[in-house]
Amino acid sequence: MADVDATDARLLLALGEDPRASVMALSQRLGLARNTVQSRLARLETNGVLAPLDRRVRPEALGYRLSAYVTVQVVQRSLADVSGALAQIPEVVEVTGLSGVADLLVEVVATDADDLWRITEQVLAIPGVQRTDTALALRRFVEHRVAPLLERAAGGARDE
């Protein structure tokens, strides 16, 4: 993944504020040539700097109003297989490897408590899973964000 410089950060901040802005509008707002904006956006997308668009879709809008975090202890040699099996469960929205007692942190979404039970049973049935522990997410106090980091990378200045 490529590094993001101050100009990239300013561009990403502007795009975050107006995701539908045209290349021309972004170039005028940032005082950059249209070709510069277009080539930087293409490079950021190609280099994997921009997350997939589906990251912006809230599971609640699809009927998944319950969110939970499942910590999973795995037989060490099975980590790749377990991760692959987790990726096959549609309600698994993210899997993160951890250090410590638990090996994986799995974020899942469910329609209700019975659906969550079904999903956790699927996780437990994966060969190589030794133990799970589930915690319901009651409220999100800080949404996923990178704007403060972009502002820092941009030199603290935001374009108005």
TrEMBL record:
One of its GO terms (biological process) is response to amino acid. The keyword Transcription applies. The keyword Transcription applies. InterPro entries: AsnC-type_HTH_dom, Dimeric_a/b-barrel, Tscrpt_reg_AsnC-like, Tscrpt_reg_AsnC/Lrp_C, WH-like_DNA-bd_sf, WH_DNA-bd_sf. Residues 4-65 form the HTH asnC-type domain. One of its GO terms (cellular component) is cytosol. Keywords: DNA-binding, Transcription, Transcription regulation. GO terms for molecular function: sequence-specific DNA binding. This is DNA-binding transcriptional regulator, Lrp family. It comes from Blastococcus tunisiensis.
